[in-house]
Task: structure prediction
Amino acid sequence: MTGALAVGIAGLGTVGAGVVRLLADHAALIEARAGRKVTVVAVSARDRARNRGVSLEGLRWYDDPVALAADTKVDVVVELIGGADGPAHDLVMAALAAGKPVVTANKALIAMRGSALGAIEGASIRFEAAVAGGIPVIKALREGLAGDRIAGFAGIFNGTCNYILSRMRAEKLDFATVLADAQAQGYAEADPSFDIDGIDTAHKLAILAAIAFGREVDFGAVHVEGIRGVSALDIAFAEELGYRIKLLGIARATDAGIETRVHPAMVPLAAPLARVDGVNNAVVIEGDPVGQIVLQGRGAGAGPTASAVVADLIDLARGRAAPMLGVAPQALARRAAVPMAAHRGAYFLRLMVVDQPGVIADVTAVLRDHGISLESMLQHGRSPGDAVAVVLVTHVTQEAAMAAAITRLAALESVQVPPALIRIETA
Ligand SMILES: NC(=O)c1ccc[n+]([C@@H]2O[C@H](COP(=O)([O-])OP(=O)(O)OC[C@H]3O[C@@H](n4cnc5c(N)ncnc54)[C@H](O)[C@@H]3O)[C@@H](O)[C@H]2O)c1
Ligand SMILES: N[C@@H](CCO)C(=O)O
Ligand code: NA
Result:
């Protein structure tokens, strides 16, 4: 048995304190599995006096995280500060420059700077915690499915959004009410925009797509829509039509290249992702020859996220090498990013129209002009002279045709508010 793996941790918030606690609580089993001790020797955070519920006795303290990377007694740097720039980025660059491996939970950093970091000669950087927290989805793709060709995957990667959508459905509440409550209870951030505008999901999707398809991390190519526009009315219609609305991150290999998109989607009740509720995350992967794999679990929180960070540390302690994105930098594939306009799928479209003769004829004429075929149509009740909801479900059609039709529908005099559009997925 070689000597202990000496760990330096920067950032002692939810995840950092969770990692210190897990390494202490499971010290014996981690040593047995790693073949050596994994020991925290140094830490850095902003407030030395703060009580984090974990003992920092005997650990070297650094006010400046970059100084922690220079500590010659630190073998591996764990970055748990967060953010694509600033101290987290400075620390990771300093650690890699010093030839030290890095473990991080920072999805923003990997999504925005992953390609540049991966290109650094000899860089060793692990980030299982960054995607779907405790679900070992990066290991599943990079190791477990290393022999498979991945056709695509779809997942629920943001617990905050899934919690909000689950409560909106179960309690028939609107978005603003549930968000305010989630903030009051401390689930959602005071500025929750990364979560609810889909950016956090897009970070995770960009990272996972790079590994699934062996190409560079391409955050800029991801089409991103969040959940602010999801209404209680559309959730009720989804229920009636046999769907659940989820914020999905989807990546697919098509003949034209790789499609990556984040948006609310209607998922049939029988599909694996439909029944994943609350703060849970889940991902459905399609591989050849393995077929379909479904992983579900906790995507956030101190324990689940620490579980992923510690697994990465054990890999390092074992001396297991793995290229950052699953293939060597020079072997990364160049595959085109497919624009959203080229996406093909089925759509749910809700219009608020004036209840008067001829309106449906006008609407269907627009759809006909753009070659869009309808699967079903729904209208409840009558309200002459007032606005009523009309729901249209299309057959598979091209996004560009749908977008053009919506522009024309929105301009019709009988259409009262901007049309609501939700894509239908089979995952
Ligand atoms: N909380 C989760 O459940 C979760 C899940 C997956 C990934 N992550 C990621 O893990 C990382 C940490 O998240 P968190 O929830 O623990 O955040 P947090 O806000 O609870 O903790 C951040 C820590 O970084 C420290 N810090 C900030 N600036 C610093 C500086 N200049 N120098 C030294 N320390 C500094 C803070 O003092 C704090 O201890 C983020 O990248 C986040 O996206 C979090
Ligand atoms: N804000 C994230 C945390 C985990 O990345 C979520 O709600 O899922
Ligand atoms: Na993970």
Q: What stands out?
A: The chain is about 35% helix and 25% strand. Residues 174 and 231 are 6 Å apart (CA to CA).
